[in-house]
Amino acid sequence: xxILSIMILLPVVAALVVATLPGGEAERAGRARVVALAxxxxxxxxxxxxxxAFDQTTAxxxxxxxxxxxxPYLDWSLGIDGIALMLIALSVFLMPxxxxxxxxxxxxxxxEYMAAFLLMESLMIGTFAARDIFLFYLFFExxxxxxxxxxxxxxxxxxxxxxYKFFLYTLLGSVLMLVAMLWMVxxxxxxxxxxxxxxxxxxxxxxxxxxxxxxSFAVKMPMWPVHTWLPDAHVEAPTAGSVxxxxxxxxxxxxxxxxxxxxxxxxxxxxxxxxxxxxSMVAVVYTSLVALVQHDMxxxxxxxxxxxxxxxxxxxxxxxxxxIEGAMVMMLSHGLVSGALFLCVGVIYDxxxxxxxxxxxxxxxxxPRYALVLLFFTMASVGLPATSGFVAExxxxxxxxxxxxxxxxxxxxxxxLGAGYMLWLYARVAYGKAAGDDTRAMPDLNAREIAxxxxxxxxxxxxxxxxxxxxxxxxxxxxxxxxxxEGRELATVPTDMTLSPMKAEMALPALTxxxxxxxxxx
Amino acid sequence: xxxxxxxxxxxxxxxxxxxxxxAALMLGTFTGGPRALTVTSLFSVAILxxxxxxxxxxxxxxxxxxxxxxxxxxxxxxxxxxxxxxxAASVLLAQxxxxxxxGRFEYPVLMxxxxxxMAIMVSANDLITLYVGLELAALPSYVLAAFHRADDRSAEAxxxxxxxxxxxxxxLLYGVTLVYGxxxxxxxxVIAGLVAGQPERSLGLLVGxxxxxxxxxxxxxxxxxxxxxxxxxxxxxxxxxxxxSAAPKAAALGxxxxxLVVAFPGKVAPDWQQIILFIAIASMVLGAVAAVAxxxxxxxxxYSSIANIGFALVGLAPGTPDGISxxxxxxxxxxxxxxxxxxxxxxxxxxxxxxxxxxxxxxGLSKTRPGLALAMAVFMFSxxxxxxxLGFWPKFAVFQAxxxxxxxxxxxxxxxASVVAAFYYLRLIKIMYFDAPEVSLDxxxxxxxxxxxxxxxxxxxxxxxxxxxPLAVATTRAAxxxxxx
Lengths: 522, 485
What we know:
The complex is a heterodimer of chains A (522) and B (485).
Chain A: H1 3-19, H2 25-53, E1 62-70, E2 74-80, H3 82-105, H4 110-129, H5 133-142, H6 144-154, H7 159-188, H8 193-198, H9 203-220, H10 229-236, H11 239-264, H12 266-271, H13 273-292, H14 297-316, H15 321-352, H16 363-366, H17 368-382, H18 388-403, H19 405-430, H20 437-440, H21 447-465, H22 468-471, H23 475-485, H24 503-512, H25 514-521
Antiparallel strand pairs in A: 1-2
Chain B: H1 3-10, H2 12-31, H3 35-53, E1 63-65, E2 70-72, H4 74-93, H5 95-100, H6 106-123, H7 127-145, H8 152-183, H9 188-197, H10 203-220, H11 228-235, H12 238-263, H13 269-291, H14 297-316, H15 321-347, E3 348-349, H16 365-368, H17 370-384, H18 392-404, H19 408-433, E4 442-443, H20 447-460, H21 468-480
Helix pairs in contact in B: 2-3, 2-6, 3-4, 3-6, 4-6, 4-12, 4-15, 4-21, 6-7, 6-12, 7-8, 7-12, 8-10, 8-11, 10-12, 10-13, 11-12, 11-14, 12-14, 12-15, 13-14, 13-19, 14-15, 14-18, 14-19, 15-17, 15-18, 15-20, 15-21, 17-19, 17-20, 18-19
């Protein structure tokens, strides 16, 4: 059974159905919601089945399909390894929650809204499942269209500016990548990602190719200083749009790095770690400080996303198993936690129609259940042990410590700053006195909202307490990436604080003594 | 059998179009009255279909006719199919407008004559045939541009087009004489042999090539010979602008490819390649930048066509079979995109009956006319070259050919220009989808045009990607015809 094709095409079909539903305005809206929810639930079921049937012992692409539908330009070639599987699982998990979150808050042009989300789902799964590099590009770029419409039609006051910025920024990054792809396929004679990942490109060319891909992935990621589209897009997007943006779209950059940059340009990756580390270090400190001064809740979470994504890049370019695994867990964890935080903001935004932090306060008294959930996700974002955030940050720092202690040091300060802005946000929203009578009158979480948030709480705890379930499928694929990186000449970066060449000695104790590494974490 | 009869048989489409256009003129004159337009139009479409029918068993390899003046091969057959389809669509899409504005039957007849000229252009194997075809295509076009003769803007468009077109023809002819003088023949394949035999590069020949290219660049509206395009598109009646944007561009690009690849291969190729490189880059960049400030939808589409010609020329620059194949692919998709966009503009009417002119008229179209807005969005995203819409793939193909030939900077500049261009295509989508409607536009309600819009939109949608494989077979075969093994 071509399960991946079905998973990609089913939402498209559903989107067409939703867009062409008969009936009056209210009837169409009601039916559109039901069809969209049903489709995303079927997708979730398929995703679970995919996970269950997945062979966790091999790095080979599974569920492979290949049809020369579009020869000679590209093939309809699909297949997933563990990395893709986990990201697909994240997408199909968040999607029904997004539909539910928009159940009442979106009242304008509901069928079109649902259709755009279903298209989004199809394109995201396609991006992760594509095995042909041009098919990947097709899905990667295609996601711009529904997201542009979602921000532009259903967004807030400055939605048009935000939608343009989002579209043009990401498009500009991507076209450079496309030129690099054209060159690579010409060089390797195949557009299959598996073949390209085993091709040794000339070292000088690798640097240029790396930079071209970097231009695209850094924007998608987003890395400092090309992150500025993200806060604008987030603030103006509807709640569910923010969830998808933070939950899945931001993962495309990290996925691109691990799927393309690391295995295809290993020499360039090793040579350019200073660039990535430099940008990551700036991003963590700078965006954390920016997050501290935000008055808008969504903006604050958006800036915290940039900081978390810098952990991902730091972990990936540690170029070792712990770092890359940590980066992957960070992506999954961030997808859950920041998605949940945006949903939490959405909950109170639906009641008060403002995201101004100063307009809230005292929610721990008036909305106890809500305050509990918000506290949980605040802690997960900070990286409290037993939540997924802890596993992610710990692994990233563990891996990074072996490559660059300076980068580790700076990134660790990001955790402290992160605790600062998140806890302060929580204190201002949940404690103190309510800012007004309308704030005090807000009802607590209803059943639908609990149904949305509860699964994420469970998943976050699961990932925090028993991360092996999530790491195990990815291990073979990550081992393959690390094998490609082995023995590449690293750029000279200050690797330890004594500034003497003690790389090997520094690396080993961190591996053998978790207690010591845990210390460096706190 | 006298060779002339064999030649006439080889030139089947041209023969049908010649006789058909004369018959259409008679038919229109003798029918008279209000029915003349409908009868002549349907007859013209039938003639175009018949001409297409004669292409069914067109030879793949070059078949020379008229003592070397004319060549029929897979390349000309491919382009003729596009030209005939585009011309038939142009005749049909003008019906509501013609009916409303008096209904003169000369319109389809002029279309047929122009189509005949274009068919000759893509089959020209001699610089003289080239000129004859070009003029035969141009003269009816001047008349068509001024077809709304009571309207000042239309008359101005016709006059402007005529004056500049005549100048370009003059430049082209001068180039032809130079090439004849310095090479020794006007027949394309013979020129190639003679030039290859020359001991060193001849400067006179180079000047001749430059002049010929200038004349042709005018016809395809490539920068720096593009100035007429926005004015003529804006002034000419919309159906005529739709016609100008499609078939003549295909014919002139095909002609350009044939002249350069067949007559000037080998050691002179780098000379014309750098010219093509320049006009390709200039067209892409100017088409993208200048369109940003436009408010008139027809001017926007004019700049869009300039930019698109630039992208198509990227396929010509490497001078390889892959590049020519990509160029043909580009032309095919471009014709569908541009005809589709013009069809949507034509299909809309302001409440007071005036045709839609400014982009602001489209405000909120997604609420008032969701179907048309969706089709327009497909065309705009497709023109912007966003995957998975079909419009992305021809761009992809031409740049793939350019990168394979080592023209990396061209590809980079081109893609960046396409990002700038995306801005103004997005603007129309923003106006249609994000803005609130100001006036509720009426639909012309023509079922034929609606059907054509749907067909074009379906072709430009991701579903059209399924047509890529068969198209690639056809374009590869067509491109191979220009490169004798």
